[in-house]
């Protein structure tokens, strides 16, 4: 028996299957393993340094805070979306929820005359729509991909119906505080983003729900047999994703001082790209919120770099696409079976 | 019969191990053209592994495989198929939504530059004319009974002109008349000069259908004989007849006083259970023996609340108990260690710490949410108590050996002080050293007052550990035995349905 053990008594049932789950853990001792695990972060810093040296005006507080503020809606959606993907789901309705909620925020503000009620109605609506997604996924047993694809159509249609296809302008004073206001020199939207990101990180790493999110995405069967309420966990992550989209919707409405049903259409793709680029596994069970933030801001830096360097904007999507493919391929290369 | 010219498949000294578990050891065997050859043995004897090596699914660690005299060691399933060796797996591999004909010719479609040519229908009719299986080309596979689906698999093999067809437990999900039809098909294959390697549990079927049978035991070759020279009793003897190589520590006497923890009567539910009656007391290890497919696991899942019961009574700690969900059962002190630890038990990519802490996560509350330190401390205590190697609670569970993974799974529940512990195959895929440690652990748990329901395919394990053993067959408990006075072969006979009278029956 002892003869079959390797030197440290570390027995492998099927060594070929071990490698690859553990990006940066099993393979992590090597430099390549580190590069795989932290590819997006490394790319972010390299790009940051390159832009600092080459692009005039990049390394100024004004520019950096501006980037952060522009990305706040997508980043908030990506934070909650990380939990969705770790739990093994997809939320393709985030963009549509942003559209509905930014319209609702404008509509309610105009109707009630209260900026507070108007801006708060957006996250509440988002929470409700997200919960509906969760219920469809669990109790109606529709795959999240399909369910949210369908509800995204329904939700964007609602946005159009509320405004009759037009645009709702808001002239109430103070409505722009969330999207355009500052505390000291920091934009309010960036503060909201920071607070939301911290809360999501806390949920994921420091609560029972967080443990259950990892467990459900990692091995649903094992989670069920360990007494985890799988359905409830799914509903929670979808509700959080809806809430995040609602906050994003409020920020957008506040920024442009109106509710527009076409707002937010790019959020779904941008947030999922950022999550995957950051290194959260699309198969569930693995990932981190900071990774998605890195993903969001890496993509933002690429865009900002194009602006500052005066590069041809037609190449922006091409470069973004290539960056995402390369990052994911690099991560997958450690996953040989 | 030393004439090797008619050997179509020859195996010379093949060995195979999975991690630390040696599943095949120095097997020498040959299969002749035009014979039906049965491969028999207990669960875990290595018959399926041998079939998979011949079919190119597994690569042997040592030894050589010759097909038609050509060295084919370590070939792929594709090469095996092209050389005329087809495997019909236990789990059928058909595309359920497509037609019979499409399934039969899947992968060998006639085409020119990728465009389908010729009539699928005509090719199918030619094939069907040869075989008379009574299948229609257009029927969707989904709409066929399992036995018919097996025929589709066989046709698929024939469409590729397979000379050797390996069937792994083809009868396990068939009704009696379907089994009969399958055997007629096997006879027909023999008449066409094909070789059938028939892996089965059913001794009667093997003797009736096969020309020769080979018995494996613990990965070793035991005997190959002509069916006419064998009887079912002799086969059982060959499948078992070994000195026990695992030392069981002596069965511990029951701690007194013991109370009835679980009483199940006439339980029906889930996919297989059709009448189960048993009781378990505190401090007692109760074994549940049966063949694969007899409903042991399904019974365990019913009691645990993972499947729904339809009828019968469960009494738990003196109260009527209707299991609703694993979560509910766990909160009442019932835990289960499932049979497939990789699929149902652990999240392999997560750390030991996370896997142990999962059900107890809420007990790690600190001042700022869950405390990683508390979780880590709990995991470290458990790991050192159970002797998990390596003792690093941060390493991924998937990097541990089978035995250590199993210990982690025990560790998940051990600190919750359960009243009833259901163990489904607790030593599957576990090396001998770890097995003994797990046995000790099970006995410790019982001594500390837990009631234990032990399911295992290893009869010696069940008989060696349990105070009482229930036998299951076809979804029912068919008897209760005292393991200290029962011989393994009598029990096996009952399980196979050979000696129907020998168990002290509590038949309902």
Structural topology:
The complex is a heterodimer of chains A (337) and B (508).
Chain A: H1 15-18, H2 31-37, H3 39-54, H4 61-86, H5 94-112, H6 115-138, H7 144-163, E1 168-169, H8 177-180, E2 182-183, E3 186-187, H9 188-206, H10 208-218, H11 220-225, H12 230-256, E4 258-259, H13 267-278, H14 289-309, H15 316-332
Antiparallel strand pairs in A: 1-4, 2-3
Helix pairs in contact in A: 3-14, 4-9, 4-10, 4-12, 4-13, 4-14, 5-6, 5-7, 5-12, 6-7, 6-12, 9-10, 10-12, 13-14, 13-15
Chain B: E1 7-18, E2 21-32, E3 36-40, H1 47-54, E4 62-67, E5 70-71, H2 77-82, E6 85-88, H3 100-104, E7 111-112, E8 115-116, H4 120-131, H5 146-159, E9 164-168, H6 176-191, E10 195-199, H7 203-209, E11 212-217, E12 220-226, H8 232-240, E13 260-269, E14 273-281, E15 285-289, H9 296-304, E16 309-316, E17 319-320, H10 326-331, E18 334-337, H11 341-345, H12 352-357, E19 365-366, E20 369-370, H13 372-386, H14 402-414, E21 420-424, H15 432-447, E22 451-455, H16 459-465, E23 468-473, E24 476-481, H17 488-496
């Amino acid at each position: 028996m002892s003869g079959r053990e390797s030197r440290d008594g570390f027995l492998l049932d099927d060594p070929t299957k071990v490698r690859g789950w553990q990006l940066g853990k099993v393979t992590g001792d090597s430099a390549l393993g580190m590069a795989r695990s932290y590819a997006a972060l490394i790319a972010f810093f390299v790009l940051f340094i390159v832009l600092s040296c080459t692009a005039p005006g990049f390394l100024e507080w004004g520019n950096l805070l501006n980037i952060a503020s522009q990305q706040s809606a997508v980043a908030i959606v990506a934070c909650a979306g990380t939990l969705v993907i770790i739990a093994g789901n997809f939320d393709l309705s985030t963009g549509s929820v942003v559209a509905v909620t930014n319209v609702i925020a404008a509509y309610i503000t105009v109707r009630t005359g209260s900026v507070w009620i108007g801006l708060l109605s957006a996250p509440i609506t988002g929470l409700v729509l997200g919960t509906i997604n969760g219920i469809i996924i669990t109790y109606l047993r529709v795959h999240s991909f399909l369910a949210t694809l369908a509800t995204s159509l329904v939700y964007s249609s609602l946005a159009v119906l509320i405004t009759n296809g037009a645009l709702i302008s808001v002239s109430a004073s103070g409505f722009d505080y969330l999207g355009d206001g500052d505390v000291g020199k920091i934009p309010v939207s960036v503060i909201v983003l920071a607070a939301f990101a911290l809360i999501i990180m806390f949920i994921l790493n420091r609560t029972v729900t967080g443990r259950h999110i990892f467990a459900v995405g990692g091995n649903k069967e094992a989670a069920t047999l360990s007494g985890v309420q799988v359905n409830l966990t799914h509903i929670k992550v979808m509700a959080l994703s809806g809430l995040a989209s609602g906050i994003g919707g409020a920020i957008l409405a506040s920024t442009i001082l109106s509710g527009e049903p076409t707002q937010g259409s790019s959020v779904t793709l941008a947030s999922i790209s950022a999550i995957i680029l950051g290194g959260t596994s699309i198969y569930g069970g693995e990932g981190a919120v900071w990774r998605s933030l890195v993903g969001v801001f890496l993509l933002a830096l690429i865009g900002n770099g194009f602006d500052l360097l005066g590069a041809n904007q037609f190449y922006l999507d091409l470069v973004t696409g290539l960056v995402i493919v390369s990052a994911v391929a690099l991560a997958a290369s450690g996953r040989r079976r | 019969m030393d004439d090797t010219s008619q050997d179509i498949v020859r195996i010379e000294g093949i060995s195979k191990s999975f991690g630390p578990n040696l599943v095949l050891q120095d097997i020498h065997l040959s299969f002749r053209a035009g014979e039906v050859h049965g491969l028999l043995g207990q669960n875990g004897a290595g018959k399926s592994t041998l079939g998979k090596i011949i079919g190119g699914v597994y690569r042997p660690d040592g030894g050589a495989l010759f097909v038609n005299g050509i060295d084919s060691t370590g070939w792929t399933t594709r090469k095996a198929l092209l050389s005329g060796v087809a495997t019909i797996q236990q789990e059928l591999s058909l595309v359920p939504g497509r037609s019979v004909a499409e399934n039969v010719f899947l992968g060998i479609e006639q085409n020119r530059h990728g465009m389908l040519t010729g009539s699928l229908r005509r090719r199918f009719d030619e094939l069907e004319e040869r075989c008379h299986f009574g299948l229609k080309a257009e029927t969707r596979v989904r709409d066929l009974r399992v036995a018919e689906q097996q025929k589709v698999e066989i046709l698929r093999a024939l469409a590729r002109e397979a000379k050797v067809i390996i069937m792994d437990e083809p009868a396990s999900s068939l009704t009696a008349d379907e089994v009969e039809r399958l055997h007629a098909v096997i006879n027909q294959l023999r008449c066409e000069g094909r070789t059938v390697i028939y892996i089965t549990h059913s001794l009667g079927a093997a003797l009736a259908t096969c020309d020769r049978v080979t018995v494996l035991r613990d990965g070793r070759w035991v005997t190959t004989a002509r069916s006419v020279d064998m009887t079912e009793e002799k086969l059982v003897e060959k499948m078992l007849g070994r000195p026990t190589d695992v030392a069981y520590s002596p069965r511990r006497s029951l701690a007194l006083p013991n109370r009835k923890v679980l009483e199940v009567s006439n339980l029906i539910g889930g996919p297989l259970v059709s009448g189960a009656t048993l009781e378990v007391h505190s401090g007692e290890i109760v074994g549940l023996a049966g063949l694969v497919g007899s409903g042991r696991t399904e019974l365990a899942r019913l009691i645990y609340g993972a499947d729904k019961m339809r009828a019968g009574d469960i009494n738990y700690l003196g109260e009527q108990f209707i299991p609703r969900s694993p979560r509910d059962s766990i909160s009442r002190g019932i835990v289960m260690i499932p049979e497939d630890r990789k699929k149902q038990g652990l999240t392999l990519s997560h750390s030991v710490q996370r896997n142990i802490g999962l059900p107890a996560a809420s007990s790690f509350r600190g001042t700022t949410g869950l405390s990683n330190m508390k979780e880590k401390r709990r995991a470290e205590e458990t790991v050192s108590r159970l002797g998990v190697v390596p003792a690093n609670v941060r390493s991924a569970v998937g990097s541990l050996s089978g035995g250590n993974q199993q210990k982690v799974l025990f560790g998940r529940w051990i600190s919750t002080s359960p009243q009833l512990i259901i163990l489904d195959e607790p030593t599957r895929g576990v090396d001998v050293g770890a097995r003994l440690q797990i046995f000790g652990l099970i006995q410790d748990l019982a001594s500390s007052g837990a009631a234990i329901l032990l399911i295992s395919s290893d009869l010696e394990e069940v008989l060696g550990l349990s105070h009482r053993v229930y036998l299951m067959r076809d979804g029912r408990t068919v008897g209760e035995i005292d393991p200290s006075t029962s011989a393994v072969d009598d029990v096996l006979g009952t399980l196979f349905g050979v000696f129907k009278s020998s168990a002290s029956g509590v038949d309902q």
